[in-house]
Amino acid sequence: MSKRRALWLVGFLLLGALALAQSKTISSYSNLGVTGGKAGGSLTLALGSAPQTLFYYGAIDSAIQTLANQMFDGLIEYNLANYKIEPALAVSWQISGGSRVYTFNLRRGVKWHDGRDFTADDVVFTYSQIVANPEARGGDAGNFAGVKIEKVDTYRVRFTLPKPAPAFIHYMRLPIMPKHKLVGFSQEGGKAPAEINNAWPTNVNPEEVVGTGPFRLQSYTPGQQVTLVKNPNYWKRDENGAVLPYLDRLQYLIITDSQARVAQFLAGNLGQINISGAEFPDLKRREVQGAPFKVVQFRALFGSPPHLAFNYDAKNPELARLFRNSDFRRAIQAAVNRNRIIEDVYNGLAELPGNGVAPISEWYYDTRKLLGSYDLKAANAALDKLGLKRGPDGIRLLPSGKLLEFTLTYGSNSTAFTGIATILQNDLRQVGVKVNLQGILAANLLSTGRGKDWEAIILGLGDQPDPELRTPIWKPGGALYYWHQSTQPATPEGAPQFNNFLPWEKEIYDIWEKAASTTNVTQRKALYDRWQAIFAREAMVIMIAKEYAAGAVSNRYGNYVYSLGVIPGYNPVPLMFQR
Amino acid sequence: MWTFVFKRFLIAIPTLLLISVLVFAVIQLQPGGFLENMLEDPRVSRETVERIRQQYLLDQPVWVQYLNWLGGVLRGDFGYSFLNNRPVSELIWERLGWTVFLAVITIFATWVVAIPLGIYTALRRHGFGAMLANFIGYFGLATPDFLVALLLIFAVLSAGGTSVGGLFSPQYIDAPWSWAKFTDMLSHLWIPLIVIGLDGTAGIMRQMRANMLDVLSQDYVRTARSKGLAERVVLWKHAVRNAINPLISIAGLSLPNLISSTIIASIVLNLPTIGPFLYDSLLNKDQYVVMALLMMSAVLLMIGNLLADVALAWADPRIRYG
């Protein structure tokens, strides 16, 4: 072949690639058991509640989050095996200006479900008109305050941040919306900011709801089901070059009751369900006895590991003083039987927790040694050392002579929390601490914690791939640093009340300040390692356990990777196929 | 008769007003609210919540909110669902069809089964059949709905069946009506019928039995028998007709059950009725939806009472309304 012909050929190939969609080939996940699938078939899944809207940013609603995962894409997505960031609607990006300027090169040739081209305008519209709109109920205006979002050219978008934010890239997994369908609800289209929430209500014409995702909306039958059909022009390919998704149809039945979900699964009406530790043994037994499905478990990154928190600002000053004392919290920790909780409450489907970071995460620092071990003798000795003498009935006495007792608030409609609460009550009783249980609806736990009227609480706050994303929880003085509210700013925008910081809290605060502006990954990792060590050493809150993700899938389907469900940018469903 | 209906209608107006005040007050007394729940999400700022509060007039005094709401209701506007960002009436309307359908056939099935059984158990008080019917009746009264539902689901699953929830198999939910869809529905329908209807059937059966026993010992029944009337005529023309009267007022009371009685059964059996919708709205403190449904329930109760009174007058010549 002459040089000239070769050049021509290369030129043609390049042109061809430009004319066709730039597709993404899904790398092999052989360690997850993923193989080549075949096209066709349908899968029926369960939704735990009816969607409140069909517009992702219109409500904080788990149903639409689940559906949006299938109908829309973000600029980035997570690798299914290790949660590392991978290209999605953006093929590549550059970070410059000391982690302040993010430029994304968009995938060319991607079509919206109605055939229109996906361009930089859609990305700019999504972030500037929706995500950064403080009145969008499911938006994220807080993290986009002061961020300049601009179009560089048709396939390039630039974000300029007011200050360096090394974890900013993670917000790029938010679903991108079609400007041509939604501009009429936006400020750009001349509407009031709150009008955006009225986009795509549940009775919208399904043709209106267009995304770039693997499936598109076909119909919604109120209170019963949502049907999605395959997007034949999706931009993902499997290893062999076959178009994804394999399935022709996804059907979501709305089933609120978890027992009803299991029954429907056992009857073969659902292809896959997510289950809890409590449901695991029965399903596993059936699997072993030859039922036509598989029960699987994965170590999880997301999900909310429960912790035991004490109110450093409890109304009873004696208790508050005690709760602030790290020696007291460590003594209590020695009475927390984590292994028993993992066995009895989670049926073994959990592991020892990290401190603010999931053990599977790349940011995890091994704190297992610092968590202490279950040792009632040591707990007793430590409490003795604090001068808390036992009274006549075995309950310890506070310096004032009152009984050492406190109220433990937990979610009574959560089996896991109830189990943990009773085990804690029982073990603490043995070291002379009286615990009074107070059950409330799990949905009200956080608002109770953020109030002032509680003493101890069992609460779970979600893990994220980068600690930076959880700043309001773990940085002293943050909005969700609820166990020590006297550190929180007096006014919403003000500085934390540093005079109320404990010495180690100040240390953590400085670490977080530094980590937020450090762009070097190794240095950040070192900083967060130190934070986790202090967290564990001081038993800031007492972490209990990290639950695995468990699910069951019918043998009719292949390539099942447990779906974490509502996390945008984590979507293994396109790989599933019907045998 | 018509003046009676008209009078009842007039009395209903202040009653409903009073109920509306009560309903509104109860909702206001609930701790927290939809907006407080929103704060739990870190993405939602205090300012956002404040703006929504203004948008829905929730920053106004309670009585202004009440009058606003009442004014809306009088114009047929039941307010807005916070949760769904849609008018409440639309949302209720979407879910009303299956609710009414299930309620009507359940009530119908209940009566068709319970009345003959009541008569039968009264006549053959000590027979085996009567004892069995009584046992099932007690069982039905004593067992909570959800337990019956779980037992039936378990039984169906053990027998290898697949119709364990909902009104249709997944492939028929959106399908147009066909013979196959109809039979599929029948294969699902019997479970909710039993679960929702068991309580009522047992209750009405026992009531009917008691009424029958009562009536059978009355003088006019003895007179009829001594006159030499055929037993069939004595039973059906005199005894049953009189025994059935008190049940008519019960029938009226069963109307509001359309909304409330199916909540738990609907959740466990995954039925597309208003029940789960009400439950969800209560949990999320979606106040206008809850108020609309509670008001609907009150109105249905009044209509039911009125219908029962009218039916009673028609069935029993001794009752006349002036």
Can you put this structure into words, describing what you see?
- The complex is a heterodimer of chains A (579) and B (322).
- Chain A has 579 residues and is an alpha+beta fold.
- Chain A has 15 helices and 24 strands.
- Chain A has helices spanning 3-19, 62-71, 120-131, 179-182, 258-266, 280-288, 317-324, 326-333, 338-345, 376-385, 415-430, 445-450, 471-474, 503-517, 521-538; strands at 24-25, 42-47, 76-78, 85-87, 90-96, 101-106, 148-153, 156-160, 215-221, 225-230, 236-237, 249-254, 272-275, 293-298, 306-310, 350-351, 405-411, 434-440, 456-460, 542-543, 546-547, 549-554, 557-558, 577-578.
- In chain A, strand 5 (90-96) and strand 6 form a beta hairpin.
- Chain B is mainly alpha-helical.
- Helix content of chain B is 75%, strand content 1%.
- Chain B has 14 helices and 2 strands, in the order H-H-H-H-E-E-H-H-H-H-H-H-H-H-H-H.
- Chain B has helices at residues 2-29, 34-38, 46-55, 62-74, 88-123, 128-142, 145-158, 179-216, 219-226, 231-253, 257-260, 263-269, 274-284, 287-315, and strands spanning 80-81, 86-87.
- In chain B, strands 1-2 form a two-stranded antiparallel ribbon.
- In chain B, strand 1 and strand 2 (86-87) form a beta hairpin.
- In chain B, helix 1 (2-29) runs antiparallel to helix 14, helix 5 (88-123) packs across helix 8 and helix 7 (145-158) packs parallel to helix 12.
- The longest helix of chain B is centred in the middle third of the chain and has 38 residues, at 179-216.
- Chain B is globular, with a radius of gyration of 24 Å.
- Chains A and B meet through strand 12, helix 5 and helix 12 of A and helix 2, helix 3, helix 5, helix 7 and helix 12 of B.
